């Protein structure tokens, strides 16, 4: 279910948060579906349980999951799929960064390749087989 990149500069808990968000947004994990327990997931992917707990707390803070004491964590049915303000802010940042790269002389083809590479990596390379 999860592939953790131990060579990545991104902390493991952030990798878990990103993966769970992707699974929730894409409907793989359904609303009110029970999440794997911290112990279960920790042993499954050989990660410290505290790391799993940190990822779950971040997912709860962002509104993707909720917890019920003694029962576990569940996918939140009320999470917002798209926060329009955040999308606009991110697009503005991307535009600013792309313009800077263009001014530095980066070619269009290289930028498109970069976008494609990022997109493929975010999907776990599932379309590259």
Tell me what the structure shows.
The chain has helices at residues 12-25, 38-45, 49-61, 84-103, 108-122, and strands at 65-68, 72-75. With 129 residues, the chain is mainly alpha-helical. It folds into two domains: 12-75, Arc Repressor Mutant, subunit A (Orthogonal Bundle), CATH 1.10.10.10; 84-122, no CATH class. The protein has a two-stranded antiparallel sheet with strand order 1-2. Strand 1 and strand 2 form a beta hairpin.
Short description:
This protein is 54% helix and 6% strand.
For the sheet with most strands, the description reads:
2 strands, antiparallel
Quickly give the CATH architecture of the largest domain. Answer: Orthogonal Bundle
Radius of gyration: 17 Å
Topology as a string of helices (H) and strands (E) = HHHEEHH
The CATH topology name of the largest domain reads Arc Repressor Mutant, subunit A
Q: In total, how many beta strands? A: 2
Distance between the termini: 17 Å
Compute the number of helices. Answer: 5
Any idea how many domains?
A: 2
What structural category arises from helix and sheet content?
mainly alpha
Which labels suit this protein?
single chain, 129 residues, mainly alpha, Arc Repressor Mutant, subunit A, two-stranded antiparallel ribbon, 2 strands
